[in-house]
Amino acid sequence: MTTAATDSVHQRIDRTFDGLDSNHDGYVDWSDYQNLVDRYLGAFQLDRGDRRARALQSIHEMLWLELLRHAGAGEDRLLKNVFVAATRLTIVDTSRLNVVEGLAHAIFDVVDTDGDNEINKDEFDRLLRDVWKADSPESSKAFGRVDTDDDGTISRQEFLRAAQKYFNSGDLNGAGNLRVRG
């Protein structure tokens, strides 16, 4: 991985921290992840007992435990620089959990509200607007970057590739170039 790729991935993880830190206290803790899961459930009107909601909750709990493990944290909250480093380690260490793939599958299942195994523009816009509070001009272009075959929908495979690109690629024209706010 080049330095440019490293820097852009760092910036994306940095923005992810900002989107997660819902109370803006400079830390991410489990309550921030729970808040994110709750935003998904609210945006996509899912009951906590729904299998998709349970899968989303579980993958976020596993992600949180992996972040703490890689951070070597003595407490249950992470500063931004520790979060970025722990996230990078969690992404590359797939010995226990492939976080990127697991999250992408769970999120795809939630966002695909009609169960047709594709995400349409309205479903994708709801993800960006209601879950991640994305509000930049770039976010409106994101659908086209993820829909790589230009068929007007995002397949599961396109979504998985976009998630991989977000956390692993230096390509700023890729799917991960979104501005989010908590």
From TrEMBL:
Residues 8-43, 99-133, 134-169 form the EF-hand domain. InterPro entries: EF-hand-dom_pair, EF_Hand_1_Ca_BS, EF_hand_dom. SMART domains: EFh. SUPFAM superfamilies: EF-hand (SSF47473). It comes from Pseudonocardia yunnanensis. It comes from the Bacteria. This is EF-hand domain-containing protein.
